[in-house]
């Protein structure tokens, strides 16, 4: 949970209208992924505004090569775990691959992630007609939606890999058009990934809803990164837009190796790690 100290006033819960106010006031929005209750609590203690249960868990938690194998059941499980670690941070969760295949299923999935698992908002990739229809249907039923454009990982096979989008003028114009379309459909937030800085700025200025960038430059209304990337615990690849704030992967390996050495050398458990019988207690 969020921890107060003498110099930290109690933080009010972050809300969807609150995010809109942050954009209007020019205050940067901080989003970070979390996949379990303990990390969620740490994220909240750090003062992060939005915790994202990303389908990136398919890669950093499950070991897949893409986000595509992640299921709705798995997203609901991780969302409910993260929800138990939060009290003031806004919780956003991804709709997994093909959960938006039609409006009826999108509504069912959204209701489950919000009503059952505890998310405050769901995130949907793309701006195809059926996606826009789903965004409209969800928001009409009081389920806030975060759209996602640019490099959309669920389209990895269509893109031919995790490639930067919107570099050519016509492609940039298309991203802007899609951003306006998801806003018109009712999205309250947009995550924009893997586009040139100039396009990130252009989209941010054109929209009245907040734009959260990930590899979209410094002009977006906020930023999001995968927590395993900033902590240095995921090393399969490190995108250019990632900044490492720690190298915990190295520390974890060091600690595990030290533990193994102590066990094999009979240094662990030591005197401080064992229990003794009370005086005159028979065995």
What's the gist of this structure?
The protein is an alpha/beta fold and 283 residues long. 40% of the residues lie in helices and 13% in strands.
Structure report:
This protein is α/β, with parallel strands linked by helices. The chain contains 11 helices and 8 strands. The chain has helices at residues 16-25, 37-45, 57-60, 72-83, 103-116, 129-140, 156-159, 169-185, 197-206, 227-231, 248-264, and strands at residues 29-33, 50-53, 90-94, 121-125, 145-150, 189-193, 211-214, 222-225. It has an 8-stranded parallel β-barrel, surrounded by 7 helices. Strand 1, helix 2 (37-45) and strand 2 form a beta-alpha-beta unit. The longest helix has 17 residues, at 169-185. It is elongated.
Q: Give the low-confidence spans.
A: 1-8
The run of helices and strands is HEHEHHEHEHEHHEHEEHH
Instruction: Tell me which oligomeric state these chains represent.
Output: single chain
The side-by-side strand order for the widest beta sheet comes to 1-2-3-4-5-6-7-8
- What class, by secondary structure content? alpha/beta
**Secondary structure: helix percent:** 40-55%
Portion in beta strands:
5-15%
Shape: elongated
Mean pLDDT: 92
SS field, number of helical segments: 11
How many E-type strands?
Answer: 8
Radius of gyration computed on alpha carbons = 22 Å
- Sheet with the most strands? 8 strands, parallel, barrel
Q: What is the terminal separation in angstroms?
A: 43 Å
SSE diagram, text form:
Layout: H1 16-25, E1 29-33, H2 37-45, E2 50-53, H3 57-60, H4 72-83, E3 90-94, H5 103-116, E4 121-125, H6 129-140, E5 145-150, H7 156-159, H8 169-185, E6 189-193, H9 197-206, E7 211-214, E8 222-225, H10 227-231, H11 248-264
Helix pairs in contact: 2-4, 4-5, 5-6, 8-9
């Amino acid at each position: 949970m969020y921890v107060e100290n003498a110099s930290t006033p109690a933080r009010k819960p972050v809300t969807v209208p609150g995010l809109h106010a942050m954009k209007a006031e020019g205050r940067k929005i901080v989003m970070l992924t979390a996949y379990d209750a303990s990390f969620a609590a740490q994220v909240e203690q750090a003062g992060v505004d939005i915790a994202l249960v990303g389908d990136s868990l398919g890669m950093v938690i499950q070991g897949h090569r893409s986000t595509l194998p992640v299921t709705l059941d798995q997203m609901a499980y991780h969302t409910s775990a993260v929800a138990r670690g939060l009290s003031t941070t806004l919780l956003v969760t991804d709709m997994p691959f093909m959960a938006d295949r039609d409006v009826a299923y999108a509504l069912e999935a959204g209701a489950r992630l919000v009503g059952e698992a505890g998310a405050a908002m769901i995130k949907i990739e793309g701006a195809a007609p059926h996606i826009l229809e789903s965004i409209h249907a969800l928001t009409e039923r009081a389920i806030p939606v975060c759209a996602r454009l640019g490099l959309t990982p669920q389209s990895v096979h269509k893109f031919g890999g995790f490639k930067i989008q919107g570099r050519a003028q016509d492609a940039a114009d298309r991203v802007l058009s899609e951003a306006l379309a998801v806003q018109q459909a009712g999205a309250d937030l947009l995550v924009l990934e893997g586009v040139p800085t100039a396009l990130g700025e252009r989209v941010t200025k054109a929209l009245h809803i907040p734009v959260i960038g990930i590899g979209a430059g410094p002009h977006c209304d906020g930023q999001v990164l995968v927590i395993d990337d900033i902590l240095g615990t995921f090393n399969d690849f490190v995108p250019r837009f990632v900044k490492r704030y720690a190298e915990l992967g190295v520390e974890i390996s060091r600690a595990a190796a030290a533990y193994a050495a102590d066990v094999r050398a009979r240094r662990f458990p030591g005197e401080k790690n064992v229990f003794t019988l009370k005086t005159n207690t028979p065995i």
